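Example (one chain per record):
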Amino acid sequence: MGNSYAGQLRTTRFEEVLHNSIEASLRSNTVVPRPVFSQLYLETEQPLVHDGHTENDDEDDEDGSESNSPIPYQMKPPPEGSCTTDGFCQAGRDLRLSSLASDPLDVPPGFMLVGVKSPSLAETLLVCAVDRRFLPDERGHNALLGFSGNCMACGEKGFRYFTEFSNHINLKLSTQPKKQKHLKYHLYRNNQGVLVKGAPICWRGHDGRMRQMGSSLSEGHVTSDEQPSNMALTQPSHTPGSYTAGSHVDSVGLPQITDTPHSLTNGNHAVPSTAQPPVNQSGPGRPSASGPHANAGPPKKRHKGWSPESSANNLPESTVKTPPSSSALSTLSVSSGNTNGARSESAAPLSSSQGSLTLLSAPGQSVTIPDQLLHTCRLQPVIFKGHGPLPQLTGNVSEVLVSSLLQSCYMSSQTLPRVYQHYGPSPIQPLSTEMQILLTVYYLVQLGPDQVPLIEDLEQIFMRSWRESHLSEIRQYQQPQTPATQGRHYGIETPSTLPGLPQHFSLPPQSQQPLIPSQLPWLAQLAASSCGEGVVVLGEQIGSLAQGMQQTFSRLMEGRLENTNYVVIIVTAPGQETQSCVVVTGKHQCRALAESMYSPNEGLKEINHQLSTGVAQELIHYCNSLGQDGDLDSLLDSATVDSNEQSPLSSSQESAEERSLKTTHSPKDTHSPKNSHRQCSKDSPSPKGGASSPKDTCSEYSVEWREVRPIQLAVARKLLSHVCAIADSSTQNLDLGSFDRVSFLILVPPSEVTFQQTVLHLWSSGVLQELGGLEQECVSQRDSEHYVVKMDQSAQARIDGLIQEAHSNSYTLYILVHDHAHWDINSASCSSSDSGLGLVDQLLNSRQVRDAPNILILHVTSFPFALQTQYTRISPYNEIHWPSAFSNDVDLYHERTRYFGVSELLESTRSGSSLPLMRYDSSFESMASALEERFPKLHSAVIRTTILIQHYCVALMAASGRICSSHNLHKHTSVETLEIVQSLLTAAQQCPAHHGHMVLLRIPSLALAAWAHRRLSRVRRQLGLEESFEIILGNPNQALNIGQSFTDQIKTWLKIQDADWVPQTYLELEALPCILILSGAEPLGESLPRSVKYCDLRVISCSYLQRTTLEQELGLAAYLVRAESRPPHNPGPGSDVLESDAEKLSSTDNEEEEGQENGDSPLSSSQQLQSCPDTGTLDPFPAQSTTSPNVQKGTMDTIQSPSQSQTQLPTPSQSFPHPQSALQHQTQPVSQLQPQSQIQSQNQPLSQTSSQPYTQMPPQHQSLSQMQIPQPQPPPAQSHRQHSKSTSSGSLSPQASSPHLSCSWARGVSRPPSVLLPRALYDVITAGDSSGLPRCTSFLPHMSVAWASSFRPLLSKMMTCTEQSLYYRQWTVPRSYHMDSSNRTEGRSDNFHPRRLLLSGPPQVGKTGAYLHFLGILSRMLIRLMEVDIYDEEDINYSAQAEGLQYHPPNAPWPNPDIIRTMPFDYALHDPKYDDISSVYSPGDIPSTEGNPMRQEDVYLRRRTSRIKLSKYAAYNTYHHCEQCHQYLGFNPRYQVYESTLHAFTFTHLLLGEDIQLYFIIPKSKEHYFSFSQPGGQLESMRLPLTSDWSPDCIKSPIFTPTTGRHEHGLFNLYHAMDGASHLHILVVKEYEMAVYKKYWPNHIMLVLPTVFNGAGIGAAHFLIKELSYHNLELERSRRLEGGGPADDVWPFIILSDDSCVMWNAVDLDAHNGPVEHAVSLKQVLQHMEACPDLAHYGLCGIRKWSSRGLTGNKQREPFFRGHLHDFLLLNVDRSQNVQYDQNRFTCHDVDFTLRLHSAGLLICRFNSFSVMKKQIAIGGYRTFIIKTKMTDVPTSVGPSQYICAPDSKHLFLATPAQLLLEKYLQHTSQKLFPLSTKNYTHPVLSVDCYLNLGPEVTVCFVSSRPHSVNIGTTGLLFSGLLLCFADSFVTPGFLKKFTFLKGATLCVISADRSSLRQTVGRLELEEEWRFRLSDEFQTANAKEDRPLFFLTGKHI
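Predicted structure:
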């Protein structure tokens, strides 16, 4: 049917059901199906592997299609009279492309011209227009189901079904019409305006017929080149080209075209079924994936039983590689788990060794591979398929390799991103076939003789050529988008140069004059002619590819291609598409390409196989022979025999038994016997005792690797802030507040050393003690091992245990640290169980870990690229990148170290004036290439390792001085190796404690490493050097093994007493002279000591050029250099030596190179790295380091003047003006480069002045021996002055005054190690690409990812780590065996795991220390979150006589009202928050001091607080979300807010004189607390319980909490405080804050104050709460009466609680050591108080405020107290009915209320047995009022004197309530207002009916004017002032006459307006005793509309 789907269905049953339902939906009128279908069908899947090849509808050619269709298809008969001719539509119009090519066609917007393939017209296409929404994009994705098209012949529009359309255009199909099968090509107009066939339509990631260039499929001999391992021709994996866009990735994601033949009847149309890892659907801004792609189509109907999980789909890649008919396939070694492809073990490289393969090839053509090809030519040719089908190979096919890398590069660069495919009348075209071939020839021509082609380079050349030829069109058709922005998406910037393309090479201007096929052969030959025989083009004389290949093989056998590296075969015949292929015939290139076809694992297997079968023996014997100098073994034997002669290196005579012991060691025994004596150590310069004797200690030695550096602290804090950000986000993914401790597990790769190293770091970091899991004493290293787990089979149980533990301990936060996270990213489903891979996926990506809310995963890696793909699980916001420590050379973190990593190494290669730290060894390389030609069948790693070890053996023999002919030995090693060995041997002699350095020898193959270890150990033993240095085999699977004598030495250095201690990490080998042979396919995170001096990487593989692989190896040399050792006068950021300060250089003592050697100080990338090293030479041309160092050394040593410039170097070194020119000499020994006499004369002074025991060596050797320790050196001309010291001395820094360090190690720690690389890698790494970045950064980042498109931009030099991450996230997709490949969903946001973080930083920079510190500070923070700052202040104003009286027994549970009445009311204020207000006068009290003595200095300090851990009964703010609280807080499981309703409630109050309307917001869940006129009707009252009610789980009193400004921070969550008891809690909020409180507290009842109270203070809130409660009480009593019960039964109490009350405590009097407080729930406190038998007698009850010193002394022995209450009140609204809170008050309202309540005769009681803790909340609250002017909202500093003004004056008005201004004015200026009252306690100010704060220096005497009120006796008391505030009618002149005043006492009368002020003065007859002046009238500084208050002052007469 016409809506055939474009994706895979999940199950076949589902397929049928949906098939029908979708067809029905498409019959409806909606054009676009519902999204659910596009989600179901557009999901990409892997192609189905069936019978060894990929099933694909498109491969069923039309002839055979009936057999594929389960039901024969009947086409509808055409309408009467319509045309049925093929190529014409039913309207009779011609549809053929050939007819319409030049016609102007009307294409509606949104439509594209498409070529339709008709089964009856094989040669031509039919033209139609199709809505582009129904076509796939360039990756085969995003095609909507269904069809919408127009006929371009008759113009009929609107065909909605492809079935209908195919009838109209007469397709005459025998199967159901499918658009995928028949819509074949995009059509576009070329430059001549003619409509031509364009790119194939990419259905299911599969380019239809990919032109015939792709049809070749002769792949019986597909070899393993199609593996991820190879992305580049030579180097697998990187190159965009090899599978850009993942263009070819088979079912398991290999970059390969699964070239599997299909026996189709029409062989010419075979399609390489390519697949690609499904690529996430990308939006319009992300053109991903070009090239053949894999949105594999639905399964064929005949495969009903198939499901995507079927085993066929999980076959390792290798099974898809070659046809099943080839019996060779049965021997495919399936590389288990590594999914890197496989290689046949039977036939040589997997080429199909059968001639009988049924391959698709041009009929009748085959090529016979000649016998003995490999033997004759000593190479195995590699055939790159190009365009067109490759002829079938027969004969000796095992000796040829076939690769489709080039073909895939051609395809991907011809598949334009969709944005370019259709651009109006002049569309942008891909590169033509001819242009691709010509560019390929250009590229091959300019490759150097030793260079291997990189597909990545070629692809970039194609891209650049395409962009340049189409730049104008691209810009023309992108008007809406500027070219710059477009370029950012599609990489349209034109790089200035491309690697591999000469600068002068101008790309042929394709757009002006297209290249025609007939021109191609001679243009290609013309291009090839420039390189002589290097590239041969066969084109003009040959008629087919088969003929060209046959010619090539003939020429090869005849030796005519000896100097030819590439043969390009081009076939251009008129009327046929151009065909091509490339045969690689260069020996070096063939070998490199063949080896790159192995996966890394297979390469190692091949090496093991060659070693185990003895194939390598011939090579080893060959290398052992030293020509006329004899045989290595026999020389060694002679050395052993003569060993009774003293070795020049040994200063003591060996005893005979020791010698015999040494000679009888087996080769594996690398250690000398335990009882060997230390004085025989070859390190000791003179016979002396062991290193432990005091005089042998080294003062410079120190080990500092355990300290935490500032930058690590910074990174730990960044990690913590990211964790907090996850917790703070609204997603509720991490609730930090619910955790009270941290636990963790660190996962490390399965390397014993890495495991022990992590354990050591963990143990020494102190994190375990900090986490509190273990007591300080018992923390040992053994305990630390419980927290670290190796990712091997044992990890499963550990992680399962952690998951169980996490499940049961929901209050513990578990951190899973996945260290070295790039190591195992294999998908568990694609890995076999025994490979050990896929474990991370299986464990960390499991559902249990993913869904556990208390497990957080932290990935830590130096190479995060593989975790940054389109399907990554880590949000870009959760990535933490290691910051740069230096910015513009400013040390941002005050580090004492500077990091020296890959970029700095690269910088050192560009410095030019000195020997770079990173270099290659040219004589080694030349010897290796010679032997590679001699032994073509051996793997290059075997050859190179054998040579290298031989070099080391010879160098050891030469340096030991034991071989009598040692002067000839240097010819058989390289200068670099000799110097490494000499440096190793002599370093330990220079230090009294025998400190030396480490040489790292990296040999990836375990078998080769073991052989090297045995070989070197044997040579060391035979030379008697066993005590001089250790040889360590670093096998990741085994623990470190060190000889006992060396272990003892380390123990002495580290001062370790433990007898059983052995070093377990490389870090503990600090300063041990040793060679570490590090093996394993890749480093697994092992850290190296600072004493590593050489990283010898000469034998690492050059085949796998991914960024991760390369940087991982180079990362071994990463180093932290001490920054403080940089000399102060050094101008540069980190240049290691003086730049050109001639004076200082000449004045410094001259040691041999070593003097400047360890010149020290970080080498920065911004400066030239001065020569470091080891060859000691200042080789200006690193390429010749083997030949010239000696020469230069000698010649330069004779230059005395430091001012001479480098150009004055003598001729010998100038004879190599360019590195290339030195190559031909490199195989010659150094001595042959120069007359011997010249060298001797140059070096004579050295050997004569040298104090070393080398003098018996020939002089030339002496000069070599000087090249000791690598280090930065001054620029060449100045650096070589005559040496006057032996190698044993050197200075730490080049300052003239510095003392000479004798310890080579101490000099070395400030200099990074030198790195020796293979030449091939060196060239690749040091090359730059057009963006200025090192070449290696543009490689594919990791083997298990693929590029999404070859049309991507390059990485830019300016990109930050974050931008690089985003780049990789956009442009890379994981292969099918990557663990993230399963992590794709339609919605991008769901892909990220919310609790997953990624920490990335360069290798060896200190990430372990950072994340360990993070664990510590996270734990501290959780404890901190569990703690709060509680006000902890001692009570104030206690007088001595108040103590001592005991009214109640100490343990009385409740107060007795009668006793309470006998207790005097304590007027004094004891709450420390009121230490700055006026004290209240009480006759018996005399203040101990005038004011508070602390006050002056404390006034600006914070109030005293204590950190207290929250109890389980704490109240919480909005940041607390535990599971129990969700219901309480109103979050249901889906986190949706509960519904609530707004209810108005009106009551009348006499004081306000009007109705008050309040609003209640009542959540549905709380409506039962209220009564309504009817359900959902008018709110009538709040239900109150009865006095007689009691329930253990219920609190009777409603709790009111007035709050402002604390919607987040107020402690309104009382769930835990109430211990689950039901309670009625009402938040009292201002109207303008209603919405925000409702948002944060959706399940709380809100009481909203009227609008007029928006600016009011706390007094108004309390006033309204109390009045509302009394009104409600009356309503409830009347309701009770109606119900027939007594009205007095209704409970009359309410609770007024502050919004900062956090915890409650009870006093335990029975404790052993006096009374103690313990936390209790609020429920317990309230139930106890509510249960008080006489509670109704009390007007107000409260509890004590907590203080840490609250229980000390006698004052708290009385269990009850009668006095002021604050913060937490139980108020009897019935009894206190007549005493109101003052609604106008802002401050001290509770003091005022308590005084009035007491004067009204009500009992006030405080329960001292309970206390409340108040949290310090800095935000919001009723005390935070800002006084600002009316003019502006910006707060300005307004002094208290400006708060008032004279009436009617022009004054700055303030936008502050008048009452607040008055209160603040009285508080701050009372000493002016009441001068007689200041500090005059005995003459207080009389305040009538109210208490106002007049400042701390004034005492206020409160009296009430009410009749029958309780007042203090004032007889005989003289008052210093009178304060009348809003005096009411109870204040009479007679009342005032009772009091006497001092003369001059001050009167202050306050009223609401001037008239009432005058009335008050008149009514009270004040003028009789008080004198007033006109100027004594004031008002608050308010505008008239703000109702200012007025007051009048006067003086007593």
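Caption: Residues 1107 and 1341 are 5 Å apart (CA to CA).
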